[in-house]
Automatic annotation (TrEMBL):
<keyword id="KW-0862">Zinc</keyword>
<comment type="function">
    <text>Catalyzes the sequential NAD-dependent oxidations of L-histidinol to L-histidinaldehyde and then to L-histidine.</text>
</comment>
<keyword id="KW-0560">Oxidoreductase</keyword>
<keyword id="KW-0479">Metal-binding</keyword>
<feature type="active site" description="Proton acceptor">
    <location>
        <position position="320"/>
    </location>
</feature>
<dbReference type="InterPro" id="IPR001692">
    <property type="entry name" value="Histidinol_DH_CS"/>
</dbReference>
<dbReference type="GO" id="GO:0005829">
    <property type="term" value="C:cytosol"/>
</dbReference>
<dbReference type="InterPro" id="IPR012131">
    <property type="entry name" value="Hstdl_DH"/>
</dbReference>
<dbReference type="GO" id="GO:0008270">
    <property type="term" value="F:zinc ion binding"/>
</dbReference>
<comment type="pathway">
    <text>Amino-acid biosynthesis; L-histidine biosynthesis; L-histidine from 5-phospho-alpha-D-ribose 1-diphosphate: step 9/9.</text>
</comment>
<feature type="binding site">
    <location>
        <position position="320"/>
    </location>
    <ligand>
        <name>substrate</name>
    </ligand>
</feature>
<keyword id="KW-0368">Histidine biosynthesis</keyword>
<feature type="binding site">
    <location>
        <position position="206"/>
    </location>
    <ligand>
        <name>NAD(+)</name>
    </ligand>
</feature>
<keyword id="KW-0520">NAD</keyword>
<feature type="binding site">
    <location>
        <position position="407"/>
    </location>
    <ligand>
        <name>substrate</name>
    </ligand>
</feature>
<feature type="binding site">
    <location>
        <position position="183"/>
    </location>
    <ligand>
        <name>NAD(+)</name>
    </ligand>
</feature>
<feature type="binding site">
    <location>
        <position position="254"/>
    </location>
    <ligand>
        <name>substrate</name>
    </ligand>
</feature>
Amino acid sequence: MIEIVGREALLRKRKTAEFSDEEVATVRKIITRVKEEGDQALVAFTKQFDGVKLDSLHVEEAELAEAVQAVEPKLMTALRHAAERIRRFHEKQLTASWIMEEADGTILGQRVHPLERVGVYVPGGRAVYPSTVLMNVIPAVVAGVKEVVMVTPPQPDGSIPAATLAAATVAGVNRVVKVGGAQAVAALAYGTASVPKVDKIVGPGNRFVALAKQLVFGEVDIDSVAGPSEIVVIADETADPVFVAADLLSQAEHGEDSSAILITTSADLAANVQTEVVRQCKRLVRGRIAQTALERYGAITVVGDLQEAAELSNQLAPEHLELMVADPWGLLGRIRHAGAVFLGPYSTEPLGDYVAGPNHVLPTAGTARFFSPLGVDHFLKKSSLLCYGKEALLRDGPQAMALAEAEGLGAHAAAIRVRLEREGAKGR
Ligand SMILES: NC(=O)c1ccc[n+]([C@@H]2O[C@H](COP(=O)([O-])OP(=O)(O)OC[C@H]3O[C@@H](n4cnc5c(N)ncnc54)[C@H](O)[C@@H]3O)[C@@H](O)[C@H]2O)c1
Ligand SMILES: N[C@H](CO)Cc1c[nH]c[nH+]1
Ligand SMILES: [Zn+2]
């Protein structure tokens, strides 16, 4: 079910952030209809794609309170435990405004402000993701965002899973709207009667969601491409095949479009993991999904040494990278592109998905080359601050005028010259 292939074949299985013309056309149509018809389009698409006809897209306060009562106490405890660890990690990311004062009294600086209203996409579809609610919302709350609007697709009975709503309450969401897919992204970008227009849309989702976010970028800001889940494991002969197989399956079970790759220096480990994956997959509730994902986007490859393994992994720039080798800290220095790196046999990826604290919304499809994990910074924006005095103007003004003249921008030069002349200094 998971093939052992050569390096070239493995690279051919690599997923990219590209979309087909057909996908682009579909999502453009959805966006245009939501822009033109507002809630009416949201209701129609929810009927078409989620199979439910809704009279109201709103989740009422009472539904949120009921959800907290409805979920098992064990789950509430886990949500609060995870929320606390996620909050603590993200508080370390806060950046403060700052100023620098020069000897002549010039003050320069940077002011940091939270965004005012953000939209958080929480995937629904085939799985329930309360952890994704925490991971998206807590950094926004830590940053000081005033209003967090959460969108998520309804289930066939029109409800939102209680665990998702309970997580929204724990995390501090202000409003929940029952709508998913590209239509939800369009609603957040342009605003409808039920969905307020936001400044930024964050959160993972399937290809329709990821593409819609890219298409509305510019109208609003977006975080990054966080699409179908991925894992790469680099393992040597010391790795336990049971652990490696379990971790590959942990991401493969997300969806038929997930990818799971093992790069190893040991042919024995490769064969053992292959057998182990088959054995463990049979026991999984979502085994069918994992199996399809592994057939499509899964692979094992044997390389000559760990340096080659690290280079191959850097080429893939995976969302999650596990280093199951004798000296993971030694290998870390060779890793340049990965959304999150897990070191050693006990740092299994699902700990990062749920409770460790770092964000699980990570760049996918090779975009870890340039995108970072979702974090507090995504919810902050900065303004620069400049305050000149007379002395500094006399020093810098002539230099600025020379540059303005080189650019042929006379009014720029004149704005400085009138001040220099007022001070009795020669404008040029
Ligand atoms: N990177 C992360 O942090 C992270 C976290 C959780 C989930 N995920 C990923 O998010 C994805 C969730 O996908 P999902 O599909 O389960 O849920 P989803 O909420 O992303 O998508 C469901 C929506 O897709 C739309 N849709 C479905 N088929 C369509 C079609 N043919 N045309 C137009 N729209 C259509 C529908 O509107 C539906 O509501 C998975 O790939 C999973 O791996 C990633
Ligand atoms: N592994 C996913 C990100 O790729 C996040 C997640 C949510 N729940 C379980 N896992
Ligand atoms: Zn996961």
